[in-house]
User: What shape does this take?
Amino acid sequence: MREKVWKWMELNREEAISFLQKLVQEGSVQGQEEGVQKLVRDRLIEMGLEVDYWVPDDEEFLNHPYFCATRKDFSKSPNVVGKWEGTGGGKSLVLNGHIDVVPSGDLNQWEQDPYSGHIKDGKMYGRGVTDMKGGNLSLLLALQCLKDLGVSLKGDVLFHSVIEEESGGAGTLAAILRGHTADAALIPEPTNMKIFPSQQGSMWFRVNVVGRAAHGGTRYEGVSSIEKVMLVVKKIQQLEHVRNSRVTSPLYKNTPIPLPINIGTINGGSWPSSVPDEVTIEGRIGVGPEESLEEVKVEFERVLAEIDDEWLNDHPLKIEWFGAQWLPGAIDVEHELMGILQNRFKEVTRKEPVIEASPWGTDGGLLTQVGNTPSIVIGPGVTSVAHYPNEYIEIDKIFEAAQIFTLVIYDWCGGDNL
Amino acid sequence: MREKVWKWMELNREEAISFLQKLVQEGSVQGQEEGVQKLVRDRLIEMGLEVDYWVPDDEEFLNHPYFCATRKDFSKSPNVVGKWEGTGGGKSLVLNGHIDVVPSGDLNQWEQDPYSGHIKDGKMYGRGVTDMKGGNLSLLLALQCLKDLGVSLKGDVLFHSVIEEESGGAGTLAAILRGHTADAALIPEPTNMKIFPSQQGSMWFRVNVVGRAAHGGTRYEGVSSIEKVMLVVKKIQQLEHVRNSRVTSPLYKNTPIPLPINIGTINGGSWPSSVPDEVTIEGRIGVGPEESLEEVKVEFERVLAEIDDEWLNDHPLKIEWFGAQWLPGAIDVEHELMGILQNRFKEVTRKEPVIEASPWGTDGGLLTQVGNTPSIVIGPGVTSVAHYPNEYIEIDKIFEAAQIFTLVIYDWCGGDNL
Assistant: This one.
């Protein structure tokens, strides 16, 4: 069977590369996903899938507690789901990939146009090619291969081409609320083919510390918010230590700080010779696979309230949770899909898979926690080039991933006729 | 004699108040001092003083090591010095007052126009009325009173109406370089009639700390500049402690921190979920009356270089001295002018004078260190309303100060015919 799949990949290689170029060339930063989604929709229709193509705008979606986006109007940003209905009695699978890409950034740092999709030394270059249009292509190839080889599946396969992953996951949330869930999910985010059965969630916090202004020459008449924020930074460091001392999962054995708390910005004071009466810090707290966002918020706020300082007792910190959030996600490492994936990985690559926890969130958190669809993240792109100028993907890796995915879908969904 | 002076003040009160209103109404923020300086010039000419009215622009001035200004063009900002030449054989005196005012700030916080000069309950309101046009008026009244009473003086009196005190003292520097110095000086900055024989100098510093950026989810791959700046803040706190433990002058006995180091601003990082690769702090360091700016800079830089941290050893702090600076100034508390001033103060006010060190710099630092003219700061305004909305001065205090100054000039410069 592996050989049939491999042969199919070889035969369809040129066309597939050309299709990926088209996906990259379309671009799809936030608000401009329509063109590329039409390409995907048409591809799914050609394959014979039942296609749901819609602009998310219903009230349940917009008012959902995990709705997290910088906008409420998605009229130029349709979601696409293609469904391959199984013959019945099998396990269903979501194949989830986001179609939105982050902005290209400083053009001077790109050697060629960010949307060129040009190929050099076996690599295709372009914004979004690794994060994660290359991964999406490997899913599409797997489906097409199974179709072309005349395979029938017992379980349903749902291919998600979703918007908004880069800004909070509203596209996957919309797909879940529309019922496009399954028994498990595969998400080919760029992991360099590492297997991530659990993904760290995260939230952003903002802590505002007030002091009392005074002239710098009589600074003892004021209260320095910079001195006070140092207490906050120290307390956050202690909290990070405590939180990580509770992490025992072997998935984190190579990770120095499994659940980091990053203080990313600090800004305060307005004049060198005035006592600063306000400082604000902003940061990101990692949320463990077994944790809820809510309990992490409560712990953070409780610990910061414990700072032993008279001034802060009378002038409590203002804590906000703002901006993006990603739910953590996890699948049991003993889950059947984990076993199938590892076996097929070894068969195709002839290597032992690396199994770790991801240090960042994916739409797998929403699929797991809201969609009741435990998710595994594994994909052919490379994290280190995602979001950077000259983003690229090794083309061979896409086909390697596509082969693995073909065989995994076959096994999990109960394939036949091969 | 006191009675003659007092009677003169009563007689000339209304006209004097009206003149102060004109000084306030003219305004004189940086770059707009010409109108008010013409008023002062004409007043000095009327009194019969020899007037030097000039725009500072010579090379010696512009290139002087203590030239500190945000501009080099003073064409709309003349300096004025009026000289009352003595009959000879007496000690000379500089009467120094700056004519520039700080901007009015948020107009909504002013109950009336900042340049109204309106009077209510014995107080005149307006930007600059306490800092320090009211003080300047008391000097002018003292001179006019002595003239009107037919006094002759042995020593010269030089009245300075200078620009740029609020931004580094370039006006007084120009007057000094033009030779307008004397055996001692009086500066009626707003001290609420406290006597400040020494004034704290100050400088502004900027310290830049670099880290290494990384994603917040893998923050251990980066180096947080916020963590590193905490070491710097702590070291600066230690330095402040060491510096103040050396201060023994009784003038500071009521001052919790004689020479404060104020960290006024902190800014760094650009994204909540990125490790911050740069943080900058800015602050003000107080310079003791006996210290030079240079030795304080050297100590600050030396101590910060001692921070024991491997990363900072490899990535040294960038330290800049920027913006404004004020030289410290001091006169011996046993100086003859101190004795005269205290006696006349007691005589006029029937109170014991309060003698302290000022927590901020004045042009007295330049007069002392560059002009070899030891200076005493005492004036009728109130520090707490300087630079604030609804700045005011108690009008009676101006005349009380004018009386004291009249008698002090008479004593110091060797008055006769009264």
Observations:
- The radius of gyration of chain B is 24 Å.
